Amino acid sequence: MGLAYLHRGIQRQADNRHILVLQAMTFIFQYYRSCYSQSNKYPAREGTAMKQQAEYNVARAFHQLGLFTFAVKYYTNALKLSEEFEGGLGKRDLKFEAAHNLNLIYCFAENYEGAKVIAEKYLVL
After folding, report:
1. Cα–Cα distance for residue pair 87/48, rounded to 1 Å
2. CB of 92 closer than 8 Å to CB of 80
3. b/e sequence 44-80, b meaning 16+ C-beta within 10 Å
4. Domain residues of the chain, as ranges?
5. Model confidence at 106, in pLDDT bands (50, 70, 90)?
6. Could you say which architecture CATH assigns to the domain 2-123?
7. Which of 62, 64, 105, 122 would be a feasible disulfide site paired with 70, CB 3.0-4.6 Å?
8. Residue 60: C-alpha distances to residues 13, 50, 56, 74 (Å)
9. Band (70; pLDDT cuts 50, 70, 90)
10. What is the pLDDT of residues 28-48, one digit of tens each?
């Protein structure tokens, strides 16, 4: 629901863009809180993967809106969650996706040193 409102809110034809984006973020943060509360019912690695997915999805929504400061916070949280376990979170790990998007934000902001640090730490094999 949140993504549907978000996509409609960023279109030029939408009459009430601010309301649509507000509703979108309300749904997205409801999903975020739900993921965090449900993650406690799973084993540590799977629960952390659920939290990382929620962090990444919120960051992605802010990134799509062009609110890069907020997106950086949630991408960074997603990367920190991946570092909690030796070897990452397995197949569900979004470490590379979060690092790539964070790198893009840093390059867009002309923070090439920050982009280099992220690339060397997470993207170089």
Report:
1. 13
2. no
3. eeebbbbbbbbbbbbbbbbbebeebeebbebbbbbbe
4. 2-123
5. very high
6. Alpha Horseshoe (1.25)
7. 62
8. 23, 15, 6, 9
9. very high
10. 999 999 999 999 899 888 889
Put residue 88 in one of left, alpha, beta given phi > 0 → left and psi -120 to 50 → alpha.
left
Q: Which two tokens stand for residue 68?
A: 């890069």
Q: What is the pTM assigned to this prediction?
A: 0.91
> What is the overall mean pLDDT for the chain?
91
H-type helices in the chain, by residue range? 2-9, 17-39, 44-65, 68-82, 95-108, 112-118
Q: Is 93 in contact with 49 (CB distance < 8 Å)?
A: yes
The conformation of residue 90, written as its DSSP 8-state character, comes to: G
Please choose, from the candidates 76, 71, 77, the residue with its C-alpha nearest in 3D space to the C-alpha of residue 59.
71
Amino acid at 68: F
